[in-house]
Design goal:
The protein is an alpha/beta fold. It contains ten helices and 24 strands. Belongs to the UDPGP type 1 family. Pathway: Glycan biosynthesis; glycogen biosynthesis.
């Protein structure tokens, strides 16, 4: 979007930012009183199996036609060394995240003769590239709509003034703006949809947050709490320093927010008209390339849960939560741990444990291009529990990894795992070169 076209939108964005900034200046100290926090009552966090056990009615298509799927599509693939929107990174068999999303919804529409639209929430970073790529879905049975999330100015941590020199988003202004949002990949679940639609009018659930059991990898994830008789999302940024370890504890706060939300549109309209959706402000500190300390004022959409009636959490299986934020996550979804069916990635039935392995790839694997160059093909990981790879390491064809595998090439060394190798509960270190001759 060029600056001339952007003018009317910028006025709207600035109005939104002005309100956010005004609230930020008024709020002092943590937004929760730790003494008032308690774990939510069991009936407010329903196990997914209980919802699934109710089955589906014959007329589920009626509910589907009341559904719109909104995907956050504002993030760039820069943290993984990719240009353009993160949703355009290839995940499986040349399919990008966006391809998988379109296939999932198209499959639903064809199966149930429904008309579920896909709405992409782009940002100023992704809008142009996304619109170009949407041409290829013209003949798919999915209506695709896009809109732009807000464009807010980063502010100097010391002076609290915007660092932008003009309205532009290029050159010296490239780091002056941010889009306040993020997202992951999910399939649509008919059982949760049916649960939402089948409640009596006076008990209509207006907001469902999908949560899943915490593991050590998720200790920073937001959790649901009971606070002043309402369900509320608690993010780590809101926790007083003295209680951060307690917040991270897997015993006290057993679940975390997956950011998959089911929200009633009439309820959103009602709350917006009354201006009563009060979202806590998250202050996100960043250091820019030149060393300047800035802050981004953000709000989490899940924080709105406290404003809705009869809100609840649904504790879904871990396999439903598939974030891809790093190349380590990408390795998991590209592997034989998952099978691809109609755009949905599901845990392979051949894996004996429902948990995903813990994978930590070193800095040589950060960028997607480098990551792909280091694997001749993706290893068999069906029986893997833990993989750590550090340094200059490559994998030949048809490698199999089982149990706990740690591969460390020290500085100046290189390890080539040979084609067909099977590593089970092994630590590999030193230098191993395999050269063609």
């Amino acid at each position: 979007m060029n600056e001339d076209n952007a003018a009317p939108f910028l006025l709207t964005y600035f109005d939104g930012f002005k309100k956010l900034f005004h609230r930020f200046l008024q709020v002092k100290g943590p937004s929760v009183d730790w003494a008032k926090i308690s774990r939510p009552p069991e009936e407010l966090i329903q196990p997914y199996d209980r919802i699934k056990a109710r089955g589906l009615p014959d007329n589920i298509a009626v509910s589907l036609n009341k559904l719109a799927v909104v995907k956050l599509n504002g993030g760039l693939g820069t943290s993984m060394g990719c240009k353009g929107p993160k949703s355009l990174i290839s995940v499986r068999n040349e399919n990008t995240f966006l391809d998988l999303t379109v296939k999932q919804i198209e499959h639903l529409n064809k199966t149930f003769n429904a008309d579920v639209p896909l709405v992409l929430m782009n940002s100023f970073n992704t809008d142009e590239d996304t619109k170009k790529i949407l041409q290829k879905y013209k003949h798919h049975q999915v209506k695709i709509h896009t809109f732009n999330q807000s464009r807010y100015p980063r502010i100097n941590k010391e002076s609290l003034l915007p660092i932008a020199k003009s309205m532009g988003t290029s050159g010296e202004n490239a780091e002056a703006w941010y889009p306040p949002g993020h997202g992951d990949i999910y399939a649509i679940d008919l059982f949760i949809l049916n649960h939402l639609m089948s409640q009596p009018a006076d008990k209509r659930c207006e907001f469902i947050m999908e949560v899943t059991d915490k593991t050590r990898a998720d200790v920073k994830g937001g959790t649901l709490i009971q606070y002043e008789d309402r369900l509320r999302l608690l993010e780590i940024a809101q926790v007083p320093k003295a209680h951060v370890d307690e917040f991270k504890s897997v015993t006290k706060f057993k679940i975390f927010n997956t950011n998959n939300l089911w929200i009633s549109l009439p309820a959103i309209k009602r709350l917006q008209e009354k201006n009563s959706m009060d979202l806590e402000i998250i202050v996100n500190p960043k250091t820019l390339d030149g060393g300047l300390n800035v802050i981004q004022l953000e709000t989490a959409v899940g924080a709105a849960i406290k404003s809705f009636n009869n809100a609840m959490g649904v504790n879904v299986p871990r396999s439903r939560f598939l974030p891809v934020k790093t190349s380590s996550d990408l390795l998991l979804v590209m592997s034989n741990l998952y099978t691809l069916d109609a755009g949905s990635l599901t845990m392979s039935k051949k894996r004996e444990f429902p948990t995903t392995p813990h994978v930590k790839l070193g800095s040589s694997f950060t960028k997607v291009q480098e990551f792909l160059a280091r694997f001749e093909n993706i290893p068999d990981m069906l029986e893997l529990d833990h993989l750590t790879v550090s340094g200059d390491v490559t994998f030949g064809k048809n490698v199999s990894l089982k149990g706990t595998v740690i591969i460390i090439a020290n500085h100046g060394d290189r390890i080539d795992i040979p084609a067909g190798a099977m590593l089970e509960n092994k630590i590999v270190s030193g230098n191993l070169r395999i050269l063609d001759h």
